[in-house]
Every structure is written in C-alpha cells, then in structure tokens.
C-alpha cells in the first residue's frame, strides 16, 4: 500500500498512523466536512506534473495545451492556467468555460470531429490559436465561416497515420477505421489545393494517437511516418501538435518515466523537424493521479458466492471501471492490520456493470460508515459523471498543504429537475 502511494503520488498521498492524508489534510476530515462521495484533488500534485512535463520536453519547450475534457473543474482550470499552460477544447461549452477560467484565445486549440458552425463562429470571435481540422467537410465550413466574418482561421490538419497503440480499444484514436483525423491522401490533396481556401492558414499537422499510452515508441513511429509523408507532400509545417495520451501509473504496470518519454520524443523531433514549434495536449497526465474519490461503505454484503462492499459511489460518479474495465486502486481510509478478504466493490446503481473494483483484498471487518478511497480518479472521473439513477453529482474539493476548499458543491435533489419545464 505504502509502496503504491510512493509510486504514484510524489509523497502527496500518504498514510499517517494508518490514516490516509491528502497533502497535509486527513481524508477523514474532508469526508466529515463535505460528506461522501467526494472527489479530492491535490493542487501541488497538479503543479508538479506540469513542472515534470516542462522538464521532460525542455529541449523543444512546447506549448502545453491541457486537455480539459479530463477534468474541467474551474479551480483546476485556473490552477493550470496560472502555470502558463494553454488549453485543448472540443466544444463550444469547453470554449466558454476555458474563457471563463481566464484562458486567452492565443493558447486555445480546438479539436473534435463535429464542430458546428456556431462553435466555429464563437472560436473565430475568440481568436483561438488554431482549429484542428478532422475532415474535408469541416475544412470547407471553417473556410466559409471565416470568409463570412472576414477573418483568417489558423488550422492544423489532423492526420490519421494508422498507428497502433497499447491501450483500451475505445481510446485508440489513430487507427484508420476510427472516426478521427484525415487519411494521408486527403491531407495531401488539401495541401495541394490550399490556395483554394482563401480564409485558411494551414499552420501544420496534428495527430492524437489515443489515451493512456505507456511508451514514447508510438509517438516516434507517428513522427517517422509524418516525416515521410511531409517529404512526399512537399509541405513544411510551422507547427506539429503531437496530441495528448501520455500514460500514468494506475497499478503496477510498466510505464516509461516522463523524463525518458519526453526526452526521446524531443530528441527525434529536434533532429527531424528543426525550427518547427511543438504543441502537446496532455490531460490525464496532469490530473489523473492528482485526484481520488472518497466513498463510504453502505453495506458489507456476504453471499455464498461473493463478498460485496456496497459503497455510496457508483458508475454515475466514476464510469471508467464500467466503461473501459479500468483498474483503480482501492484503499481503506483507515488502515488497520488484520485479515484481508476479497470483495467486489460495487455501487448502488441498478446495473451489474456498476462496480469500482473486482476481487479486491480489503480488511475483513469493513462495515457501514467505513471510508474507502478510489485512487487515480482525477482524470475522466467527475467530468464523465452523470445523474443516472437520480443521483445528484458529488462535491469536489481542492487541497493545498493543510487547507481544503470546496470547489464544486454537492448537487441537491432539486438540481435533478431544475432544467425541466
Ligand atoms: C484531441 C485530443 N487531445 C488530447 C486528449 C487528451 O488525452 P489524455 O487525457 O489521454 O492526455 C484527447 C483525449 O481524448 C483528445 O481527444
């Protein structure tokens, strides 16, 4: 347990006399003050991750555009903005929220396969840094929209390089059968006919390979393919955006350390794309292990077949285990020495797929009211949560040093119907 925390948390999640701490705050005190379930984030952890990224990519010093889909809490966004990062958005809603968090247009990149005309207008009016274009149809729409507003849109073309990555099928985004990006032939024909797009400025190329990728190898493979492609297409980009997807440790899997990961990519980049600017779009890497979900046991249910720990957080609060079969470490908030038994840790939702962890070794005596921590829940946790089964969304708390601050209040029952007419 201690070894796991050491591995993932930079010493910001620890046990003190058997009680879990987030920085210098006891997890139990967060629960007493704000209730459960509750998401908790360590501000220092987020800052450390950004510092590590900068260090690892130092020789290229890319623009870091945080992918806010991973966690869009306003406090998190402001913290990341204050570290000098830009933001990667995928919708008009994210554009509005990023703006509200203080991000300036010149550090906003806008990806996504289905940008509407309204979203494109809003982004042009905000003078965003660039659109990542995912289809010929979208390219035409951006050009026409920019023309009607008498503006020039800066764009990168998202190329689909058909690169394989070792991650869950649902989060591979660079295979040719996925909906993402433009096939090489289409990118080439856009480049050859770029003079026809009077209101576009094609700055460069983007690729995004997928999420939770554990090594630099596929990025280097993608850059090799890109180099061959650019030579063939006779195109010199001024920007290459290598997307996000940098993996993090959820358990004992082997992950290339960020220093090696960044150094290897940068070394190849500097040698093969001299003078080209780099953009990176990490989401999970910055916030994933910064956050946990605290929940309490409702029932310890034993059947002849299984032991179930039924907790007050469910798949509506954290969908990753149900959706991707992802693994989150589950720890008791108070660690007492004693017999461990195997439990399925499940939520109260009426779906068999509602689980947080299966066959987990946890103390035998856990009972109603005992607190449990679901680790590594800072990315794609709250941001993918819903009100399914009439469950108000949970509170979010930011911890820095010995201080805790609620940065999203727990929803109330009347929040469940307040938009209905
Ligand atoms: C275009 C784009 N950029 C960046 C990301 C962030 O990925 P991650 O959180 O794995 O870094 C995503 C995630 O889906 C994405 O689609």
Characterization of this structure:
- This protein is α/β, with parallel strands linked by helices and 421 residues long.
- It has twelve helices and 21 strands.
- It has helices at residues 2-9, 27-34, 43-56, 74-82, 92-100, 117-125, 136-148, 184-192, 217-233, 258-272, 284-287, 320-324, and strands spanning 13-16, 19-22, 25-26, 38-42, 63-67, 86-89, 108-110, 130-133, 153-160, 182-183, 200-206, 239-241, 277-280, 291-302, 307-311, 330-332, 340-346, 355-363, 371-374, 395-400, 403-408.
- Strands 4, 14, 15, 16, 17, 18, 19, 20 and 21 form a nine-stranded mixed sheet that branches. An eight-stranded parallel barrel has the order 5-6-7-8-9-11-12-13. It has a three-stranded antiparallel sheet with strand order 1-2-3.
- Helix 7 links the parallel strand 8 and strand 9 (153-160).
- The longest helix is centred in the middle third of the chain and has 17 residues, at 217-233.
- The radius of gyration is 23 Å and the shape is globular.
- 46% of the residues are buried.
- The structure holds pyridoxal-5'-phosphate (PLP).
- Residues 67, 69-70, 88, 111, 208, 211-212, 243-246, 281-285, 379 line the site of pyridoxal-5'-phosphate.
